[in-house]
């Protein structure tokens, strides 16, 4: 390479993105889209396909004006849309010294040209990253974001006008990546310990139940309807009722109550919630429906009276690795954290050649968040003129809270308010089937991406499959044909519904016993650490309550508490213990970081909060040990 400037720039980029460096190096274009001109201030400007990338009135002034609105904020990530000649990047990086700056340039020819003629100092800073594809941008956002992160998109007027489609795509990529992070945190931090405990509690039953893959291709050539809880469900409920014999119905648990109360018995109900939501099944008869559950679904759901319980043991869920290994399962069964995806995959596994989605709106259409009759039906999404943005609120808060958790109390109201507040943190826009934009949640935007990817995979594996989205007016899901439900079932014939054979998952006793033994050994060690922490915390509090001052004995207990806690938080024998610790560390660390020397009252209150957490750890651990021991005894019989 003869161009020394380009060579230096590529060497820099190689340090964090070798793929981009190679793309720049290999770039060749016979006809250039680029020209250089000068602004009114005599600065260089870049002309791309006849349009100036910077203001002709003054490129540096434009960059300074943009940078004047940006401050060094904690937990902020700036995404600059467009490299141009580097004016905006230079000004922003001069103000932002610590926070991450991600520069996304959609045109590789611009990158190649600019890096061939200039060394842009800002790109040499440790907090600045250049990228050219949405996947890499998503990775950067996902790697650098946390629960408190604020994402800011920065751009010139010209870039938005020259690349309108790319601008919309990048905005969606950023929102989706944030949504994925929120989903990951929600899963690992909030739900994983309960989910792992559910797996322990369900293990004995899982060994006696059929596995979804044992019913592969039984409905080959037939039509399936996947029912989710979006607003379009209500619009189509009569059509479903009048045509229920023309398709096999897969219904997600949150839509189940409304569907059954409408006189429709789902053939399959799918539930992958780790948290206890058993009030959903109260006074509802599902004895004529098959119930499909993940091993980590709440353990009480395995006792619900259904036609048959079938397990769905997904591969890419970190909770199932050890169980799949113990059962010697080696398939590619997927999960993506949304029950609708699991329902869709169940239909694909069973061989259906035509799969229709309904209630899969993934957007707040006409202000309605969920279908009438679902437990979230009282939520609406409206535009707040004062805040100049969409907000989610409850039409009748008490009614909403009652439906959400099946009861009312101060604690329920507090949870319901918090749930709405969390929804309002993640409102974004998404492209609709009508080519407009609708408000939605970041998680829903992520689901669209997942459904599009699985559609590509299905069609590659099974080219003749028909994928139809009848959730009219909702989010656009590429790979699915948009057809209203009445047209989708027109001329369809009745389907014979099969009685699924009785079978159980196959496994070798010695392998499963080894897995159980391994987990029990780890749980016992973890249990000892937890009980030590609990014990010294109690001793410290008793000493404090008795003596009213921090005595030498209290300090001794505090040291033993801290030593034991360090052992507990660093006990990471394998991924499963990290799952436990993720949740408890999340709760514990902010408390132990407090300054205990402030006063006795603060110290006492903090230690009391910690003791409640420790009591929960011990209780959770003992439950897990008991359930695994029961399963071990069952296998040995």
- Order of strands across the biggest sheet? 12-11-10-9-8-13-18-19
The unreliable regions are: none
Count of DSSP-assigned helices: 20
CA-based shape? globular
**How many DSSP E strands?**
19
Biggest sheet: strands, sense, closure?
A: 8 strands, parallel
Overall structural class, as computed from helix and strand content, comes to alpha/beta
Helix content: 40-55%
Characterise the protein shown here:
The chain is 48% helix and 14% strand. It has helices at residues 4-14, 18-26, 59-67, 87-95, 108-117, 134-144, 157-162, 164-206, 232-242, 253-261, 321-326, 339-349, 397-405, 410-425, 442-461, 485-488, 509-547, 552-569, 575-592, 600-636; strands spanning 34-38, 44-48, 51-52, 76-81, 101-104, 128-131, 150-155, 223-227, 248-252, 268-271, 290-293, 308-311, 354-358, 379-384, 389-394, 427-431, 437-441, 466-469, 481-482. The strands form five sheets. An eight-stranded parallel sheet has the order 12-11-10-9-8-13-18-19, with helices on both faces. The protein has a four-stranded parallel sheet with strand order 6-5-4-7, sandwiched between helices. Strands 1-2-3 form a three-stranded antiparallel sheet, covered by helices on one side. The relative contact order is 0.09. It starts with a helix and ends with a helix. α5 (108-117) links the parallel β5 and β6. With 637 residues, the chain is α/β, with parallel strands linked by helices. The chain contains 20 helices and 19 strands. It has three domains: 4-162, Protein-Tyrosine Phosphatase, Chain A, CATH 3.90.190; 184-488, no CATH class; 509-636. The longest helix is centred in the first third of the chain and has 43 residues, at 164-206. The model has no long low-confidence stretch (mean pLDDT 85).
